[in-house]
Specification:
heterodimer; A: 13 helices; 73% helix; globular; B: mainly alpha
Chain lengths: 292, 256
């Protein structure tokens, strides 16, 4: 990189780096630190942040309703991620193997929901699952659900809509990896006697591992932090961590408590991210050893 | 060799899953029935009422103004960031990359919460200013990634050629680099604009009372308002989405 490229010389580095660098330090890194700092401050009775430092706020996380909310957040997010990967992988496979002309339309069909307003997509399901809505009428007519069943305001509705909103984000990275995959390897595996399922499992999936890992993170992380979906289609028995953060912030005006919950969420997000990076790095180091 | 039919069936199912709610929504926007359980006749009534709902159009105006500011600022910051990350390798750029990358993997609610606490700590009045500052912050990373992707196959020899022919740094930036990067920058700007227009969670945290944007308005309509009006509004937004996607595809394909 030492050769002169004419335009951007080393003395120009600060000029193109500092604007975005300083902006993000000030409005991303500093606010992130503030969350952890305010979690260690006392609450004042007027909805502000009190003076001095305390562990009281962290202790209040032992509120008996929290373990069940945290647990629900974790399993709903994990299940959303698993379902998204299960659905996204065959779709990405079909897209990558489709003839050029078809591939373009399939990609467009996945990108349109990706760009569609988040609230509109949630609202569409709220209409469909509504007690007077089409799906309810259909299911009752088919005698699949009793007439007094509620399709909305439960954990099932939250899961369904989470999968709906996250699925396009899972398909795109897997497709990007599958597009580069050499499908002749699958044929070779079949020629050597592997069944279709075996070839898919032992040749295709390892081949697109990075895409699967990215898809896992881009579904799991927003799911862990989801707030709007459980707020709009969930009920009191399907609240997630995000709902509690918003409730502490806007209803109870208890910012230290909301910060403590946010710090908890940050940990829940950080652990799988670090795990994924470590896994990827470990494999790479291991792979190099095998090669040398 | 016989290929399994299962992936194809899953794909058809997923596409139906994607579009069924959307189709129902669009149909219901022309349905005279209020809840859309059954078809009770064709009507343009909801669109007429939507046209008269002045608070929605005021919210749209705010949203577009916020998105315009956020797009310009984040496109400038994101483009310079991408140039720096592409051109230089140093400790500073490692930290820079981390700063650009991290906002992409942080849940929106954490970003909204942390920005709210930051503005409260600074005693900054919550309102349009805090919304624009927040939107610029999450858009910068997306613009940087799009422009960075575009820079990967950028031929820096062209700049050297221009300078050999006597162009100074400013002229070669303006006459060579910018035109060649323009489609990438435009795609980044379009993404920033869309993200800003669509953002609900972060805006919700930093808006403060009395400030409204279109997503905030839609959210309160979903909570308390009239479903058919949202159907009509959603249909218009969907049409806008399809046009935007088509436009961005054209921008990205231009080089091929």
């Amino acid at each position: 990189m030492a050769e002169a490229r004419g335009l951007l010389e080393p003395r120009h580095e600060p000029w193109v780096t500092l604007p975005s660098f300083l902006w993000l330090v000030l409005l991303f890194a500093v606010p992130a630190v503030i969350v952890f700092a305010i979690a260690l401050r006392p609450t004042d009775p007027w909805g502000g942040v009190g003076a001095g430092w305390t562990l009281e706020t962290l202790r209040s996380l032992r509120n008996p309703s929290y373990p069940s909310i945290l647990w629900r957040t974790l399993w709903l997010s994990a299940l959303t991620t698993v379902l998204c990967l299960l659905l996204a992988t065959p779709v990405a496979y079909v897209m990558a193997r489709a003839p050029e002309r078809w591939r373009h339309w399939l990609l467009l069909a996945v990108i349109v929901p990706f760009w569609t307003s988040f609230l509109v997509r949630i609202f569409a399901w709220k209409v469909l699952l509504h007690p007077e809505g089409g799906l309810k009428h259909l299911l009752v007519a088919l005698r699949l659900v009793p007439a007094d069943a509620s399709l909305l305001y439960n954990a099932g509705a939250v899961l369904l809509v989470l999968v709906y909103t996250e699925l396009p984000f899972a398909i795109l990275p897997i497709y990007a990896a599958a597009e580069k995959f050499d499908f002749r390897l699958l044929e070779a595996a079949r020629d050597l006697g592997a069944s279709a399922l075996r070839a898919f499992w032992s040749v295709f999936l390892p081949g697109i591992r990075r895409g699967l890992l990215t898809a896992m993170l881009v579904t799991l992380i927003p799911a862990l932090g989801s707030y709007v979906v459980p707020d709009l289609v969930g009920g009191p028995t399907s609240e997630m961590l995000g709902n509690k953060i918003a409730q502490r912030t806007f209803v109870d005006r208890n910012l230290p408590h909301a910060s403590a919950l946010s710090a908890l969420l940050a940990l829940a997000v950080l652990l799988p991210s670090i795990g994924a990076i470590a896994l990827e790095r470990g494999r790479r180091v291991h792979g190099k050893e095998v090669q040398s | 060799m016989k290929r399994s039919l299962t992936p194809v069936l899953v794909t058809v199912g997923v596409l139906a899953f994607f579009y069924l709610p959307v189709v129902v929504l669009v149909l219901n926007s022309f349905n005279a029935s209020r809840f859309g359980g059954e078809w009770t006749g064709f009507t343009f009534d909801w669109y007429r009422r939507l046209w008269q709902a002045r608070e929605i159009w005021a919210a749209l105006g705010n949203t577009l103004a916020i998105a315009a500011f956020a797009t310009v600022a984040s496109t400038v910051l994101g483009t310079t960031a991408a140039l720096a990350l592409d051109r230089f390798r140093s400790r500073l750029q490692d930290a820079h990359y981390l700063l650009v990358y991290a906002p992409l993997v942080v849940p929106e609610i954490l970003m909204g919460m942390s920005l709210l606490l930051f503005f409260v700590a600074l005693h900054l009045q919550l309102g349009y200013l805090t919304i624009v500052l927040s939107h610029v912050t999450f858009c910068v990373s997306y613009v940087t990634m799009v422009v960075l992707g575009r820079l990967q196959d950028f031929d820096w020899d062209l700049v050297e050629a221009a300078q050999d022919l006597g162009a100074d740094a400013w002229t070669s930036a303006r006459r060579v680099v910018l035109p060649l990067l323009a489609p990438g920058i435009a795609a980044g700007a379009l993404l920033a604009f869309t993200l800003s227009v669509d953002d609900f969670v972060i805006t919700f945290f930093v808006a403060g009372p009395g400030t409204t944007t279109l997503p905030l308005r839609i959210y309160s309509m979903i909570k308390h308002g009239s479903p058919p009006l949202i159907n009509a509004l959603s249909t218009l937004l969907l049409a806008l989405t399809v046009i935007t996607v088509w436009l961005s595809q054209r921008l990205l394909e231009e080089k091929e």
